[in-house]
Amino acid sequence: MKSVELFSGIGGFRIACDELGIETIWANDIDKNASKVYMNNYPDTNYINGDINECLSAIPKHDLLTGGFPCQPFSSAGKKLGVNDVRGTLFATIIEIIKEKEPKFFVLENVKRLLSMDNGSHFSIILSSLSSIGYFIEWRMLNAIDFGLPQNRERVIIIGWKNNPSSDNKPRMLPEGDLININKKNITDINDFSKWINFSDHRLKFKNWGCAYEGKFIDLNINTFSMAKPAKKLFEVLEEHPNESFFFNEDTKERIKNSVEVNRYFNGVEIRYNQKGGARMGYSIFGINGVAPTLTSSTSRHYERYEIEGNYRRLTNIEYARIQGFPDMHCQYVSVYDQYTLFGNAVPPALVKWAINQLINNERN
Ligand SMILES: C[S@@+](CC[C@H](N)C(=O)[O-])C[C@H]1O[C@@H](n2cnc3c(N)ncnc32)[C@H](O)[C@@H]1O
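^ thats the input. predicted complex w/ S-adenosylmethionine below
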């Protein structure tokens, strides 16, 4: 099995594919730092650093397409037309590549917000576009917490497999353990295409699991995750002796004077102090007995304060690697500052490894 990794960043999908014995034969990203990291870790890969739209003809035929694509709004014209007017977006480029290369499978990743943007019309366009080019589509919201990582990070994973007479169009990201927790009527509806809803009738945001096929979809809110491993806690992945540059004791002690002690957990994240009177997360001080809040590429997040053994510091670049499930030194080729951004943008390999495995190993033809 051969894969192509679009918007490859530092290779979250790459690590997952390596672990599953899938060979990554081509990868691309426009970002200089991401490319430095990718090319140093995987010097033998056929890799292009540049705009994907400039190198479409270089993409080889492949079996599996992967990509965590940037989330761009569609034009209002697209919304009015309902389907398929995604012109000029990177999502349109993905559609073009899938149409041209016809991979057997694809796995796309995006932020949770995708399900609710523009009251669901954004996701409706994505699903109807993908399902109108010959693929059966399934999506599910997954959380890094359920894959042994100490982070609350919810991501929408969209998988697709080529629809042909012999393919099995049954959900692949609903393992037996989860089916037990879904009521019988819902299971009947999933299996009865006449019960599925036309995209033109979609209402508001999409639920956290669903399937789409030939202009119709069905979705459900599924709260269990049968593969769940107990979440690791932040204290389990901390470095023992971080460099002094990560600490900000004195000014934090001053800020605490104007903060209120909170001491509660929110989405698994331990919040020790908050800025007085405000709900803003900006000056929160986190504890280490829960998980980390979603790491992001935004600089302010890199400077979040954690109370650790009576000191106050930010997380280190190596801790960012561990929280996302990458090897400690994966991004050593760029500055510490740039590592935060790259890790914050990445997909946790363990999460997509599960999705890819469900997709390709559930094939029964
Ligand atoms: C959400 S990140 C994907 C991260 C990746 N999955 C990982 O594990 O590191 C999106 C990536 O798309 C890249 N990108 C944005 N516009 C692009 C373009 N026009 N051509 C190629 N890559 C692009 C960004 O540089 C960024 O690395």
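Residues 349-361 form the longest helix (13 residues).
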